[in-house]
Each structure stands twice: as structure tokens, then as C-alpha cells.
Amino acid sequence: MKILLLHKRLEDEGRSAVDQAGGAQIVIDHLRSLCSITDPANEKLLTVFCGMLVNYSNENDSLQAQLINMGVIPTLVKLLGIHCENAALTEMCLVAFGNLAELESSKEQFASTNIAEELVKLFKKQIEHDKREMVFEVLAPLAENDAIKLQLVEAGLVECLLEIVQQKVDSDKEEDIAELKTASDLMVLLLLGDESMQKLFEGGKGNVFQKVLSWIPSNNHQLQLAGALAIANFARNDGNCIHMVDNGIVEKLMDLLDRHVEDGNVTVQHAALSALRNLAIPVVNKAKMLSAGVTEAVLKFLKSEMPPVQFKLLGTLRMLIDAQAEAAEQLGKNFKLVERLVEWCEAKDHAGVMGESNRLLSALIRHSKSKDVIKTIVQSGGVKHLVTMATSEHVIMQNEALVALALIAALELGIAEKDLESAKLVQILHRLLADERSAPEIKYNSMVLICALMGSEPLHKEVQDLAFLDVVSKLRSHENKSVAQQASLTEQRLAVES
Question: Could you read off the pLDDT of 422-479 as tens digits, one per residue?
Fold first, then answer.
């Protein structure tokens, strides 16, 4: 241990000495001046210089940033282009790129060079697994940048990746399985950029899109996963979503989910549900997906104990029932679903699942406007969660809760009265109206709800006891006209009922 510590100290002292002497700049200047000379002795020297820079900046963000500021990246890219036939120098350049590519500040400099073209050219030449692995290690961090994603697509990386998938898909060798995963993961990453994704979609007619579609029914879990994630990435604008739904992608995804119901692969479940959720966003797709049986396919995962799957399941159902009254009513009367939602509303360890459960509970009421749905939610103990949701830090969630609660109060106040009282709804509404930070729509819907609660004797009494008139009268001069008008109406109602 002492030897290791001593070695580390000597290493740090060496770096510090090089830094103080301006050694990095001297090495970079030498690289620039010798860059174009291709004789073996010079290439050996260039390899040593590159190695010095790697050792100098290894695992040291500030020294890596220093090299980037000195403009080392364009020099190294040029070096790679000129000396791509020299294995030792090429490898050293790749190690240097790997060092620098993790740093966010490097991405812009890389994007201004022809790094994508050079790496793809180099990648195509590699036959050995280890050599390709080195290129992959540079490509992955660089491909996080949207501009570089597009450059890599234009340089033909996708075709290389598809070829690797084709070659390795039936192999059971460990290194081939690893390479298949790396290639398909990188493919999915390239689709995260809007421009690169749209270029590869090609109106749904592109070769890449068609290839990805063929991964979904495959028997390889990694390809199923990559295929579903790729579809989720393609489904990032309405035009793509509409085209895919019209061309049968939903059935393919449902078949995939069906294969993973019992003891299924959680990552595949999550990816397929993500794709369905995105596809359900355009209004015209909702009815088509509902009639295709997506709701039934998704509900099969209601028993899942995996939060990522729960989260996407909830999001998919919420998207599907948006403005779809019949579907919302059907789901809202499903006791098993509602009871599970109420259970997940208490999943404090998983904020995403808890938030989505609350939002779906509210959506079932808002989109169905059904007394039967309200009865199911009240009987399952969901009211208290909607009241808690009204205090959320997110305005959109507060608003959704208040609208759902107003519908409960308007349609089934009698059966919900006790739950609203024990959840302290009236006190919460008083707080929301008195709080200057509350958004105008929160104030407006809180007053609408107050008026609806006046039909309940115990809740009416709570409203009187809390002197709502004082708070509401101040809102008559609110800058938002709708709030001011609702304040006048609420004040009249309170005055008459007092």
C-alpha cells in the first residue's frame, strides 16, 4: 500500500513539474509540427508524445481541460487521419480521445473536426474484437452530443453497427454477445438526437427503420430491447407516431409484451411500454390503440413489482384515456386497477410511480365524468390521495387534483363527504387561496371547489369557521380576470350561505 501511495505521489509531482514548465504546450507544438511526416521513426516519436499527454492528463479533469483549451483535439484528429495505417499511433490516439471525450467541454471541439468520419473509417478496417472495442469506447461518449450523432450517422456508422448485429446475432460466444450489445446500444443512442433520428426514419421507409422493426420479433432479448427502445425514440413526434401506428407497430409491440408477461425480461417490458406510451400521445392514435387492445395488453403487467415497469404502465394508460371518456370509464370501474393505483399512491420510495398513480386516478375522473368511476375510487380509498395531490409542488398536478375533486363534489358529494373531511380538504383550500405564490388556475379551481362543497353540511361548517370570505374578497382585485370574476361569484355564494 505504501509503495502504491508513493508511486501516486511521484506521479502527481511529475505532472505538477511538467505543468509548471509548460511541458504540455511544448509536446502539443511538437505534435503539430511533426504531424504530417509519415516515416517510421517520426511515427514512433509521435506515439511517445501522445503517450506523454495521456499519462499527463489521465484521470485528471483540470489537466484534461487544459489540453482541450490548448487545442489538442484538432491536432489528434488530424494525426489519426494521416497515420491511420500505424497501429501503435492509432491506438494511442484512441486512448487520448477516450481520456478527453468524457469531458463535456471537449464535445464542441470534437464536433468542429472530422472525428466522426475518421472513427468510422477506422472502425470499418478493424477485424479484431479488441480493436473494435477501443473504437467503441471513444464513440459512446462522443455520441452523447447531438451534433456528433448526426455526423456519425452521415459518416455511415449505422450501417457498420447493423452489420455487426447481423454477424453476431446467432453467436453464443461471450465476446460476440458483448459486441452485439454495444452495437445495438450505440444504435439506440444515435436515435436520441432529433436530427439523426429523423434522418434514419426517412418517412418510415428507411432501411435502418425497417431493420430495427425486424429486431422486435427476434428471439434475442438484447435485440428485442434495442428494437423497442429504438421505436420509443422514433416515436418522438406526431408524424412518426401516426405513421408507425398506421403501419402495424402496435401489434408487434403487444406481441413482444405477450412474450414477457410471465417471468419476463423487465428491461424489455419497460422498453415496450415506453414505446406504447410515446405512440399514444397523438390524439388520432388513441382510439386506434384502444381498439387494438393496448389497454388489455398493458393491464397484464398490473401485478409487476418493478417500479420502472409500473411507471411506464401508468404513463401509457394515462396517455390512452386522455379525452377518451368511454375508455376512462371502463378503466375507472376496474376495481383491481383502482385498488392497485391507491396502493401505488403510497409508494414513497418511488416518487415517479407515486406521482403517476395520482395523476391516473385524477385522469379517470376528469375524462370519464362518471359517477360509477367516482364510487369505485371513493370505495377504494382514493380520495385522500387526490387531496394530498392538491398540495403537490407541481402546478399541473395540483390543478388536475382540484378538477377531479370538484367533479367528485359536484357528482357524488354525499359518499365522499367523510373522506374529504378527514383529509382536511377545506383547510388545504384555505391555505392555497391565502398563499400569494399559488398560480391563478389553482386559486380559480380552489374557489370552484369551495362552492361545490357548500352542499355538505359538515364541510359547509368548516368553510364558515375558517373565514373564507376574507381571503376570497381580497382576490376580487386579482390581476387575472378569471380569478377576479370567480372571487366575486364565490363571495356572493359564501355571503348567501353564511
Answer: 999 999 999 999 998 999 999 999 999 999 999 889 998 898 888 888 899 899 989 9
Tell me how crowded residue 307 is: count the other CB atoms within 10 A of its CB: 18
- Over residues 342-367, the pLDDT tens digits come to 999 998 889 999 999 999 999 999 99
| Cα–Cα distance for residue pair 101/115, rounded to 1 Å | 11
Report the C-alpha gap between 480 and 482 in whole angstroms: 6
Mean per-residue pLDDT, 27-48? 85
Angle formed by the axes of helices 87-101 and 129-142, to 10°? 30
218: alpha, beta or left? (left if phi > 0; alpha if psi -120 to 50):
beta
Alpha helices in 145-292 (DSSP H): 146-154, 157-168, 174-190, 194-201, 207-215, 221-234, 238-246, 249-258, 266-279, 283-291
Give the closest residue to 248 by CA, choosing from 205, 288, 201.
288
- Number of neighbours of residue 115 by Cβ within 10 angstroms: 26
What is the DSSP annotation of 186-217?
HHHHHTTSHHHHHHHHGGGT-HHHHHHHHHTT
Return d(Cα 130, Cα 107) in angstroms, integer.
25
Residues 6+ apart with CB under 8 A from 429: 390, 446, 449, 450
Phi, psi of 319 (to 5 degrees): -65, -40
Quote the pLDDT of residue 352.
Answer: 93
Segment 163-189 mean pLDDT: 91
CB of 146 closer than 8 Å to CB of 194 = yes
Q: Which stretches of 21-113 are DSSP H helices?
A: 23-34, 40-57, 61-69, 72-82, 87-101, 104-111
**Which pLDDT does position 413 carry in this prediction?**
94
CA distances from 364 to 191, 282, 337, 400, 412 (A): 33, 19, 11, 11, 15
- CA–CA distance, 230 with 136 (Å, rounded to integer): 19
Residue 323, Ramachandran bin (φ over 0: left; ψ between -120 and 50: alpha; else beta): left
Rg (the chain; Cα; Å)? 30
DSSP state of 398: H
Q: What is the pTM of this model?
A: 0.87
Task: Give me the residue label for grid cell 400521445.
Answer: 281
Compute the CA torsion angle 154, 158, 164, 166 (nearest 10 deg).
-130
Give the alpha-carbon dihedral of 11, 12, 18, 20, to 10 degrees: -160
**Measured in whole angstroms, how far is the alpha carbon of residue 187 from the centre of its chain?**
17
